[in-house]
């Protein structure tokens, strides 16, 4: 699915959730399943093993069981904002259905949208766009190039390569003193 097909919008709070106390947005959960179909096995296992615990932990959510003969199993969630969401759960096991139920319980009920910002700028940095000359020495602004002074730049400390070569020489010298000669091990 491309971003062009996903609707876009701005951040909205569901009923100002978090401003006072938390209000679970899931209002009603309906479990539709077949009593004999093999595809409904996971949902029937969820009802037997996990549904009582879910209802005890979430007394604000009304749970309905709808046995329907020869119908594929699904979870139907209805939220406080009036939105309804259906998730088909054919051939899912009870653990996966637990995860889907938890997702529906913690979901806001708002439609999934690509978020847009309330502002736009062509240069996102308040310091301006970066250029290769951003952190260069300001003497370059008034220097006529090519410059003899700038081309004779001599570093004050050795480079990393020079440091490694010195370290390798020191190690060879120590090995020569310890072993009484060249050990032949490469550095």
UniProtKB/TrEMBL annotation:
GO terms for cellular component: mitochondrial large ribosomal subunit. The keyword Ribosomal protein applies. GO terms for molecular function: structural constituent of ribosome. One of its GO terms (biological process) is mitochondrial translation. Residues 35-108 form the Ribosomal protein/NADH dehydrogenase domain. SUPFAM superfamilies: Thioredoxin-like. Belongs to the mitochondrion-specific ribosomal protein mL43 family. This is Large ribosomal subunit protein mL43.
């Amino acid at each position: 699915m491309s971003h062009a097909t996903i609707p876009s919008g701005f951040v909205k709070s569901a009923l100002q959730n978090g401003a006072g106390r938390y209000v679970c947005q899931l209002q009603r959960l309906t479990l539709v399943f077949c009593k004999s179909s093999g595809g409904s096995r996971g949902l029937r296992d969820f009802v037997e093993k996990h549904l009582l615990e879910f209802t005890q932990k979430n007394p604000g959510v009304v749970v309905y069981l709808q046995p329907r003969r020869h119908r594929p199993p699904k979870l139907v969630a209805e939220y406080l904002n009036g939105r309804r969401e259906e998730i088909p759960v054919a051939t899912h096991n009870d653990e996966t259905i637990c995860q889907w139920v938890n997702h529906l319980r913690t979901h806001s009920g708002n439609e999934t949208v690509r978020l847009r910002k309330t502002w736009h700028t062509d240069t996102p940095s308040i310091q301006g766009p970066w250029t290769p000359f951003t952190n260069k020495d300001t003497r370059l602004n008034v220097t006529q190039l090519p410059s003899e002074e700038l081309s004779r730049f001599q570093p004050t400390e050795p480079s990393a390569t020079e440091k490694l070569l010195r370290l390798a020489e020191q190690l060879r010298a120590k090995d020569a003193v310890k072993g009484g000669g060249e050990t032949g091990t490469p550095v």
